[in-house]
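Researcher: Structure prediction, please.
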Amino acid sequence: MGATGNPPLGNDCVVTTITPYDSASGKGYGSFHITPGNNNLAGKIEWYDSTSGTVDFHADLTYINDTIRVNENEFFLLDGAGRIKEFNTLENPSDTSSERYKYTYEYDAGGHLYSKNWFVMSFNTDVPFFVYKYEWVNENLVKVEVNEASGDKRIALRSELKYNDTKTVKNFLYYFPDADELAPYIFSVNVGAKPKNLLENIGVSIYDSDGNEILTYKTTYTNYKFSSDDYVTEVYASGDVIDGLPLVSGLTKFEYECK
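Model: Predicted structure follows.
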């Protein structure tokens, strides 16, 4: 499961730096860094690629009332609890002529994301293209299912997640294997409650238009290391890379900033 040997980090800590490492060379690929702004909200996001020596992704987040603006074309709307309830973006954010997308998010009474809708705006602004359902058990996300919103409502994706329920973690990660749209922002936005325990395995199945399983992805997470107050500082991922998750294969280390 991992080891605890580090000193405590402190109270109310958030991840600010994520560094993936190459398993063979032991060198970091680069680093994903979140700079906190006012009220400990994310102010700037950067991905630095150490291979090319360049910043491959950069975003300055601007907060105006219930809106987080990423740029002229992308913005989040927040609910009264500060959670994202809507994301307006583009199919290709670097191409302003690409398809406009809208995602909406709904939460249960316990603050867990339980439903998401994806709208393709040129297709229909009122009826979603796909609907997403999330199942939580004992404060952990255990199942995701994605279906067409209309027609025969065929299944497009199903995912199952398994945890070590003997180990509790503090304010670590969201595990939404479907959430490609949130990949650059998943450390910076509030998507409700995070899983309580330690993720060990995740499997994803993709289905074709006839409902046949055509692709499967499986990933295992091991060798966790923690601070003495249960913040995850390292994890090793093996298996497939899942687009909607913020961990690549190999070792990833985490740094935090605390209030």
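Model: The first strand starts at residue 2 and ends at 6.
Researcher: Thanks, that helps.
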